[in-house]
Amino acid sequence: MTKLVYFAWVRERIGKAEEEISLPADVVTVGDLLSHLKGLGEEYEAALQFPQAIRVAINMEHAEHDELIAGAREIGLFPPMTGG
Amino acid sequence: MIAPFVKVQREDFELQTEIDRLTDGRRDIGAVVTFSGLCRDEGGTLGALELEHYPGMAEAEIDRIAKLAIERFELLGLTAIHRYGKIAPGENIVLVIAAAPHRQAAFDGANFVMDFLKTSAPFWKKEHGKDGTQGSWVSAKDADDAARAKWAGNK
C-alpha cells in the first residue's frame, strides 16, 4: 500500500486529502502513477487532466515525472506552489 | 555553519522580536535585511487569503533553501517564518531575515530565499472575496520561475 496525499485544487477535485492505495506492478514512475490515477474515475480525471501541470513529492521531496516510485512511503500530488 | 531558524505557523509573528532573536549578543553582524510579505486587498475586492501547506515538507523545504542561502552568501543568521490558514488583508504572510557582515550578502540572501521559497516550498494560496464568495486558487507565475532561474548562473 502507498499513501497518497493531495493539496490545493488537486485535493478539491479528487474530493479527499489522502488515501492508501495498492499500485499495480507496472506503475513504476511518477508519470505511470499519474496515468494510473487518471483512470480511477471522473474526479481523478478532472484533477489530473493535464498531468504536466501536476507537481509530485516522494517522501516529502520534489520528484520529476520520470523518477521511480519504488520504496515510496508517501507520495504528494499538488499544483505548482504559490506561497510567499 | 550556523543553523537557520525556520517556522511554519498559524500565528502572527513580530518583526522586532525576530530581529532581536537573530542579533542579540552578536558583535559580528554588520547588516540585517528583513523582508515581510503581507496580504493585499487587491483593490478592495479580497476578503482573505487561505494559505494551505504540506505539513512536514513545507518546513523541510524552507530549511533546505535557508541552508543553501547561508552557505552561498556566508550569512551569520537567517530566519524564515511562513504562516498558514486564513489571513486578512494587511496581515503578515511571510518573514525572511538575513544577517551578514556586509549589506550585499544580507540583501542577496533574503532575495534568494524568497525566490526559492515562492517556487519550491509547498504552499498554495486561495482567494476569498470580500462578498464572501469563494474564489479561485492563485496561479503560479512565470515571473517567479524566472526570478529563481537568475540565481543559477552567477555565484
UniProtKB/TrEMBL annotation, chain A:
Source taxon at top rank: Bacteria
Annotated protein name in UniProt: Molybdopterin converting factor subunit 1
Protein species of origin: Rhizobium tropici
Upper taxonomic lineage: Bacteria, Pseudomonadati, Pseudomonadota, Alphaproteobacteria, Hyphomicrobiales
Underlying gene: moaD
UniProtKB/TrEMBL annotation, chain B:
Highest taxon in the source lineage: Bacteria
Pathway where this protein functions: Cofactor biosynthesis; molybdopterin biosynthesis
CDD domains, sorted: MoaE (cd00756)
Ranges that cross the membrane: none
Keywords tagged on the record: Molybdenum cofactor biosynthesis, Transferase
One GO MF term: molybdopterin synthase activity
PANTHER family: MOLYBDOPTERIN SYNTHASE RELATED (PTHR23404)
Subunit architecture: Heterotetramer of 2 MoaD subunits and 2 MoaE subunits. Also stable as homodimer. The enzyme changes between these two forms during catalysis.
Its biological purpose: Converts molybdopterin precursor Z into molybdopterin. This requires the incorporation of two sulfur atoms into precursor Z to generate a dithiolene group. The sulfur is provided by MoaD.
Family the entry assigns: Belongs to the MoaE family.
Protein name, as recorded: Molybdopterin synthase catalytic subunit
Protein's organism: Rhizobium tropici
